Predict the structure.
Amino acid sequence: MFEAIYDKPVKQGEEPPFQLPAWIATAPFEEFLGMTVESAEGGKAVLTMPFKAALCQGKGLMHGGAVVSLADTALAMAIKSLLPAGSDFVTTKLGLEFHAPIRWGTVRAEARVIQQDERDIEGVTELLTEEGVKAATFRATFRIRPSRL
């Protein structure tokens, strides 16, 4: 959907060169990585991403940055399922603990919100290999931006 803008420079003072088709949808970066939103409702979300050669680190395992990207996006979709469309929020703190390497196949990210107050939302994402092995646990805090009148 966004392939035509992948190489378009983003310039200061200009609006982003795209619009999301829906509140819960992948943006250009997530599409570029091959992420798919399988479900997102009630503070939970499931996303998948195929392991392509472009996502390898030097030893042939999935790069940690790709793993974090999938986990963070899954948790963002879980949060979106709770907030009104158009709400502004950003990741303010994150951490990833690896349990097993990702060597091939499609990675599944299962995210859920675990705590929410007026300004912050905390959540966790479990990342599973195609064989169902838990490869990593991601935890993050997101800050909700107050509404502007």
